């Protein structure tokens, strides 16, 4: 048990890694998951509120009315009428839609509607969210159509009266019904997304922490002392693996606990069977970074290498798992590559949980192959680590049989 | 000095683990970004909304069907992509399967009705479902508003509709807006993630200078101990070490830049020379970070590496690297606490390339370069304070 205790002690003496990878990265997952906690529709439709701004250089009744019409449907963001501020607003997506009302617009618009002169045009600027901008632009055109038609047909109406008629008509709205597909676990997205993102802190934290623990035993002087001690290689290896397993369970429990606490409402939307399945799948996934860390330790990787491998593999896995962008949006070749990683199978299970609105027996039956593949990944890497460790022990560098053969 | 410079250079190049962070990391992550953002940039370009219509008898007789037909005509103004279904059940099945964003139908009185799917789903992390639903609602609402306006006008003055051609002309007026651009290059959501990636890559490159400085510290490495006994003064040793570290850092960033520019195809506003100058400044700043960390007394190399990794991850969060919510957070912080944001070197590097892409002049680029230079000077000064008159194994 001495090696087991020492191994855990090594981990605890490097709190920076645990704080950074478990604490900080999990908090980032919380933050991102929160952005998905848009209340589920529950049968009520709420329109997308597009962030926009109106640069009003006319300051007329009509220009103000356009702004008010858009503000009733979107989020008006105040932006200074200065070149750089306007550029930043569209370049950073602070607003999806920017409308510039030129001076004299109301006068020219009313005159054109009544048949004298050419209708003036407002300048619209689209940010990168073209669909959102298109929606706001459609709304502006609709409102101006209401005002223009009134002015064209009721020649006696003043600008104020035309605006009042348009506002009256704009009270109308279509009936919209939200259809919840029966198989969808509505509201569980935030928690499931957090679990998908959780593959990053799980991978990075476990690989780095357990890699550190394993690496501490790989130092030349420590290895020499351990090799002459009355502890068998098998016992030592099992104690190191046990310590790594304890670290893995602790990291998994912390990340899951944080998610359950922060997204308890979202997690409660899952049937108990689906929730248990999601947690078990995440745990089985966590065994893969444990096996990777064991492999790194067996190969004698340094702290810096463990750190790099944990971070990069974590990022790549999170990406391939669809936490950054939905896997269905990735090219077919990347999806094919993703199926050779454990995170793909984790995502499979989590996605099927999101569709578990009712019975979970069928869900478990369909998820079992994915759970099996997840476990197999860990077993395969673990076996590779054992073989790698054995070869390294026999290498000439380690002073094993190969060195003895060479010295002959 | 030349010999020490070459020796330091050789030592850094032979330490392969340094290149994992400084070179492999930006190459791997930019490749990931390339695949990841490919569809996102496509997705931000407006596509007509896939819509199911219930083409029953009432639909054929309603005026709304003519409006929908007009909005689904091929051309630049095409708003809807229509799929007709004979029954409401079939249309709803298409909605539930995700084939369409919504269902349009009319009731017995010819009033349009809309059915849509829930707004948020796992597939909708970067999705457009919410906007598409609203476009369908806007189409139906616009029809009702027009109908209401006609009814109101007719109630006030029935003679208004004596000339139907005038009514038709009034409603046929379209295009009250024209799209213009305010920026040097068209806004693209994804470019800033690559710029933030260079912020992170530059800071990870600080490992190089940190390692090199640790190799000059007699208490941290045997090489440092030997160098302390050498003929070259400590000041010159440090100068040469920083120069070699900068060269390696800059070379790594330059290779990553070439890859991102030529293979991934990221635009730096067609100002590649200025971008390379920015990379050189970022590499120098990274060296100053590495020196300051490397000079920290009583902290071993592993602890310093942990601090650098953790710090870089945190600073990259506020440069917006980890996805759209993070980018929004970084923008909020920069708008509300500009001084705090300017203290973040990862954000400064990201903004430097952003200014090349979006702004016409180079004034802002110059400001960001000056900011990086100031940060570099401060960090080198901090490193000097730690390194000056350090005593090893003193009695």
TrEMBL record, chain A:
Q: Which UniProt keywords apply?
A: Cell membrane, Membrane, Transmembrane, Transmembrane helix
Molecular-function GO terms, alphabetical:
ABC-type transporter activity
Cellular component annotations (GO), alphabetically ordered: plasma membrane
Subcellular location per UniProt equals: Cell membrane
Carries keyword Membrane? yes
- Would I find Transmembrane helix among this entry's keywords? yes
Q: What is this protein called?
A: ABC transporter permease
Q: Indicate where this protein is primarily found.
A: membrane
Stretches that traverse the bilayer = 16-37, 200-220, 241-263, 275-296, 308-327, 367-387
TrEMBL record, chain B:
Please list the GO terms describing molecular function. Answer: ABC-type transporter activity
Membrane topology term reads:
Multi-pass membrane protein
Q: Name where it's found.
A: Membrane
Tell me which residues make up the ABC-2 type transporter transmembrane domain.
16-384
- Enumerate the UniProt keywords alphabetically: Membrane, Transmembrane, Transmembrane helix
What InterPro entries would the database entry show?
A: ABC2_TM
Transmembrane residue ranges: 18-37, 193-214, 235-262, 274-296, 305-323, 369-387
Among the entry's GO cellular component annotations, what is one?
membrane
Q: What is this protein called?
A: ABC-2 type transporter transmembrane domain-containing protein
According to its UniProt entry, this protein's organism is Parvibacter caecicola
């Amino acid at each position: 048990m001495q090696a087991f205790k020492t191994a855990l002690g090594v981990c605890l003496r490097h709190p920076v890694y645990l704080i950074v990878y478990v604490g900080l990265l999990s908090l980032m997952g919380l933050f991102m998951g929160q952005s998905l906690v848009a209340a589920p529709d529950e049968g009520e439709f709420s329109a997308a509120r597009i962030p926009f701004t109106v640069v009003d250089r006319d300051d007329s009744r009509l220009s103000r009315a356009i702004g008010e019409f858009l503000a009733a449907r979107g989020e008006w963001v105040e932006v200074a009428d200065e070149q750089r501020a306007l550029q930043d607003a569209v370049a950073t997506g602070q607003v999806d839609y920017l409308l510039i009302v030129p001076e004299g617009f109301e006068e020219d618009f009313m005159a054109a509607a009544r048949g004298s002169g050419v209708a003036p045009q407002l300048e619209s600027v689209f940010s990168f969210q073209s669909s959102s901008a298109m929606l706001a632009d459609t709304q502006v055109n609709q409102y101006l159509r209401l005002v223009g038609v009134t002015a064209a047909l009721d020649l006696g109406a003043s600008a104020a009266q035309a605006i009042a008629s348009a506002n009256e008509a704009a009270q109308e709205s279509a009936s919209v019904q939200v259809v919840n597909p029966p198989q969808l676990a509505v509201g569980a997205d935030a928690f499931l997304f957090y679990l998908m993102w959780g593959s990053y802190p799980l991978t990075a934290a476990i690989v780095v922490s357990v890699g550190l623990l394993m690496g501490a035993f790989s130092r030349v002087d420590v290895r020499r002392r351990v090799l002459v001690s009355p502890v068998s290689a098998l016992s030592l290896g099992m104690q190191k693996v046990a310590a790594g397993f304890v670290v893995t369970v602790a990291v998994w429990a912390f990340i899951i606990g944080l998610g359950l606490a922060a997204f308890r409402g979202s997690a409660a939307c899952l049937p108990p069977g689906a929730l248990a399945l999601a947690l078990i799948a995440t745990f089985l996934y966590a065994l893969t970074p444990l096996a990777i860390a064991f492999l790194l330790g067996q190969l004698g990787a340094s702290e810096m290498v463990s750190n790099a491998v944990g971070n990069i593999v974590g990022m790549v896995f999170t990406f391939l798992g669809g936490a950054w962008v939905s896997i269905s949006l990735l090219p077919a070749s990347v999806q094919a590559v993703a199926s050779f990683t454990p995170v793909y199978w984790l995502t499979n299970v989590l996605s099927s949980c999101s569709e578990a609105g009712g019975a979970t027996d069928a869900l478990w039956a369909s998820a079992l192959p994915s759970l099996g593949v997840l476990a197999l990944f860990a077993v395969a890497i673990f076996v590779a680590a054992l073989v790698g460790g054995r070869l390294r022990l026999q290498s000439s560098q380690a002073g094993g049989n190969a060195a003895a053969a060479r010295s002959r | 000095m030349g010999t020490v410079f070459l020796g330091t250079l050789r030592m850094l190049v032979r330490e392969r683990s340094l290149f994992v962070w400084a070179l492999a990391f930006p190459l791997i992550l930019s490749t990931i970004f390339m695949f990841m953002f490919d569809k996102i940039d496509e997705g931000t370009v407006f596509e007509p909304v896939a819509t199911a219509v219930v083409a029953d008898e009432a639909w054929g007789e309603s005026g709304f069907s003519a409006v929908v037909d007009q909005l689904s005509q091929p051309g630049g103004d095409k708003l809807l992509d229509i799929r007709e279904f004979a029954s409401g059940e079939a249309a709803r099945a298409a909605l539930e399967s995700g084939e369409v964003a919504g269902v349009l139908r009319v009731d017995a009185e010819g009033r349009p009705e809309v059915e849509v799917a829930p707004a948020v789903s796992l597939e909708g992390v970067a999705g457009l479902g919410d906007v598409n639903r609203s476009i369908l609602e806007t189409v139906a609402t616009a029809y009702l508003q027009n109908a209401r306006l006609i009814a109101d006008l007719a109630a006030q003055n029935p003679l208004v509709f004596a000339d139907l051609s005038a009514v038709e002309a009034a409603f046929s007026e379209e295009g009250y807006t024209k799209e213009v651009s305010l920026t040097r290059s068209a806004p693209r959501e994804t470019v800033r993630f690559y710029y933030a990636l260079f912020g992170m890559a530059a800071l990870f490159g600080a490992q190089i200078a940190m390692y090199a400085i640790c190799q000059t510290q007699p208490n941290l490495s045997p090489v440092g101990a030997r160098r302390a006994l050498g003929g070259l003064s400590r000041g010159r040793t440090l100068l040469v070490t920083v120069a070699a570290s900068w060269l390696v850092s800059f070379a790594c960033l330059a290779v990553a830049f070439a890859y991102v520019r030529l293979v991934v195809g990221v635009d730096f506003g067609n100002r590649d020379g200025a971008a390379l100058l920015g990379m050189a400044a970022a590499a120098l700043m990274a060296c100053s970070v590495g020196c300051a960390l490397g000079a920290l007394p009583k902290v071993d190399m592993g602890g310093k590496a942990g601090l650098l990794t953790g710090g870089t991850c945190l600073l990259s969060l506020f440069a917006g690297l980890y996805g759209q919510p993070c980018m929004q957070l970084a923008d909020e912080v920069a708008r509300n606490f500009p001084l705090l944001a300017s203290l973040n070197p990862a954000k400064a590097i990201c903004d430097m390339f952003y200014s090349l892409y979006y702004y016409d002049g180079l004034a802002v680029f110059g400001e960001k370069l000056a900011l990086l230079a100031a940060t570099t000077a401060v960090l080198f000064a901090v490193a000097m304070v730690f390194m000056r008159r350090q005593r090893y194994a003193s009695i």
